[in-house]
Each structure stands twice: as C-alpha cells, then as structure tokens.
Amino acid sequence: MDGAHAALRERREQRVGAKRGRGRVHTSTVARRDGRRRERRQSDQRRNAVRSPPIRGVGALRYNVRVRVAILNVHGFVDAPLEDFALFFGGIACDVVTLHEVPDPISDDNDALPRLADRLGMHASYAPAAFAGNALLSRTPLLDVRTLRLTAPRAEDRSAVIARVVVDGVAVTVAGVHLDHKREIARLVQLNQLAAALDDSCVVAG
Fold first, then answer.
1. Among 22, 73, 77, 200, whose Cα sits 20 to 30 Å from the Cα of 59?
2. Cα gap 201→3, rounded to integer Å
3. Closest Cα to residue 151, out of 108, 182, 191, 196?
C-alpha cells in the first residue's frame, strides 16, 4: 500500500507541475508582446494623425534689445470705458501695443483708436479685416507700415499690420495679427501667408 500511495502521489505532483509549466509566461515573451502592441499603437497614431501644411517659420531674433510688447483683444472697446484701457496701457508702459478686434476708424465711424492713441501719446496704425481689425500703437513713430490681408478656405478674411519701430536706437519689425478663431487648418494657412511677408527677424504678436 505504501508503494501504491507513493506512486499515486508522484503522478499527482507530475500533473500539477505540468499545469504550472503550461501557465508560466517567460519575461522575454511578455516584452516582445508589449513591444508589438506599442508598435501597432504608434503606427495607428501616425496613420490617424491630422496632416497640417508645413509652417514657414521666421528665423531666431537677432535683436540685441529688449522690447516690451502688450497684446489685447479689445472686443470693439465695448467691455469697458476707453479711459480704463488708457489707464491699463499707461500703467504698464510698453514700447508697442497690439490690439485686436478694433473698430475701423473710417468705415465704422469709430474714433476709439485715435482717442486711445492720443490719450497714451502713442503713434497708431490700423489694418481692417472682415470683422473689426488690428492696430499697432508705438511710443516711437511707426516706419514702413504695411497691412496684409490673410485668407483661407471657409474662413473670414483676417489681417495683419506690420511696421518697424525704433527701440533704444535699434529698428525692430513688429507684426500684429489676429488669426481665424474656428479652424486650425485656416490658422495655419493664414500663418504661412504672414510668414512669407515677414523678415527673418521680427516680433509677432497676436
């Protein structure tokens, strides 16, 4: 009986060992499986990625001067009295201010921009757009001023106002721009148009 029990116990241990062996997964196998999953996931991400047009960038700034620039969307100057805007910009004392969604001083018969410039003692320039426009204010005269119309499929026309300002004896090109607010692809198209019109070194605010 003792020999029969010993043989039975031995066969039982062999079966248990075989089951454990079948359930064992080697570390190398797990690593290969995880690697394949990661590769498939990365491939799916590349395939599903939205392909955007390349951006023609401008070069690194070469100006050896510090320029203080403020940016604000004024929403047509309807959110606060004009005096509040004057107090705000007067308090931060910037070299250049770029304003967006500014009413057209001519077609809209709105004198908010020239009044603000006069209150701050700054020079002003304006670029119209489909809905309001962009403005540059500068402590020093705005030189070589030009406006740029920015277009994109299924997007309203936007604009940029570009000028050179002299800060501490150094001429700096500044562009104020307000891109499309709905579609990323439209913004990229407009940004390419802006980049093509700019120098290698400039300050873009918007």
1. 73
2. 94
3. 191
